[in-house]
Amino acid sequence: MESQLAQYIPILMLGALVTTFALGTLLASALLGKTGFRARIKDTAYECGMLPVGEGSARFSVKFYLVAMLFILFDVEVVFLYPWAVVYKDMLAEHAHLIFGSMMLFLLLFLVGFVYEIKKKAFDWKS
What we know:
The protein contains four helices and no strands. It is mostly helical. It has a domain at 62-119. The longest helix has 24 residues, at 9-32. The protein is flat.
């Protein structure tokens, strides 16, 4: 019967092979990559035949990202409505006030957060 450590030998061999391959390709790239003469124009970005001028992408306001994060936050909160809707009919017979009251509390907190964000003008990224 083999020992438990002997069963890990194929995994260690695979790890050594992967590490050797990764280091070997990095070393080959470093040694062979800069052997030829390269003109400076060859290292510039190519954009449909036009010379690249300015930044590659436009900068967005921080408010834009804040609105995006708030959208994700509210979207995730809405996802919690689906499990509630699935078990609503089954739980209605046993715990009618509990299931309805918990969702009303959830929606009230959701509404309070939404009103707070409107009052803080978090959804207005143009100002």
